[in-house]
Protein 1
Amino acid sequence: MDISGLRRPYKDRKDAFLEENILEKDPIKLFHEWFEEAKNNPSIIEPNAACLATATKDGIPSARFLLCKGYGVDGFYFYTHYTSRKGQELEENPNVAIAFYWDILNRSVRIEGTAKKLPMSYATDYFKSRPYRSQIGALSSDQSKPIESRTKLTEIAEKLSKKYKEGEVPKPELWGGYAVTPRSIEFWQGQTDRIHDRLRFRFLEKDEVVDNVLTHEGEGGWIYERLQP
Ligand SMILES: Cc1cc2nc3c(=O)[nH]c(=O)nc-3n(C[C@H](O)[C@H](O)[C@H](O)COP(=O)(O)O)c2cc1C
């Protein structure tokens, strides 16, 4: 199946040019601006959906979508089963990459960093706030392990919903959160003329200095640079 002709013109986003002089110089604040715009766009159903890439200690990668459940100076949060494939890969290799994509805005954000487990109290609080069916779903799944049939899964869920009423579902012991501490955050804005904007925030390498030509001083210890599209 040849799908090479599949092409949609990007909406003109000149208003969204990433210009060095008008740019928010702190990538977390800039992410917040972009995220708010995505969140307030009714065409975007899950603005917090993102693709998380992990890798084994030998560098074999795997990627899956998840929902980002918070962000701030201490990183980007998500929740999952610690015993899942991603959880096992994170155990042996904390290096991750996350990509958000908001197609209607022609925007993507790429984050690279390291993941570490959040304190269990975060997961306990968040789990309590989840809808009943999501709680039962999490409790009934030994995530990423094979199972013989869907019927088997629904039987487990059914049994658990008989056992636990709303408000009583315990958090699975090994279900919890991670915070990804970013070491680089790239903002990509697609443009009609195909001269797309790419601005990457990162930290200075050892002995590197900001030259105000290719690299520029950001806020919060970050520097930034424009990448070719
Ligand atoms: C939009 C979307 C959101 C998802 N959100 C989560 C999530 O927040 N946590 C999670 O563990 N899995 C989530 N999943 C399921 C994962 O993509 C994946 O199937 C699961 O985490 C197992 O991945 P693993 O076997 O690589 O560990 C989501 C899937 C989609 C498509």
Protein 2
Amino acid sequence: MKSLPYFCRGEVVRGFGRGSKELGIPTANFPDSVVEHLPADISTGIYYGWACVGSGDVYKMVMSIGWNPYYKNTKKSMETHVIHTFKEDFYGEVLSVVMVGYIRPECSFSSLEALISAINSDIEEAKVNWTNPNTSN
Ligand SMILES: Cc1cc2nc3c(=O)[nH]c(=O)nc-3n(C[C@H](O)[C@H](O)[C@H](O)COP(=O)(O)O)c2cc1C
């Protein structure tokens, strides 16, 4: 993918709210304008990279781009899980991300547990893909 690394930023908007509640893995959704600006060669799937909320610290992230086949969404979304435990939600704040690499295509799963375990493997992969000299993440 020639567009990688790809940088984008946008205000965090509300998704369906399933990330935290059903999956136990909070995800931050970008507005449609950010999704629509994605270069054509960035395919749907799961990516890893770095993220920062407002002017806060930089953490690793995993991002899902697409239609969430498990939930059969009709609208394409970009959902970022920042690999850090935040004290509070950050709806309305500006999330800046740089997508560095591709992990896998989006899949449908036979159970919620299988989806959760795939996302946890993505997080593990993002953690081992490179070492960050500044943090223990
Ligand atoms: C790293 C990562 C990988 C994901 N992989 C998939 C996937 O393979 N299939 C799928 O249907 N959804 C996948 N999702 C999307 C979740 O289903 C989605 O984040 C969840 O439905 C919460 O959405 P909401 O914020 O709109 O409520 C993934 C999300 C993340 C952060």
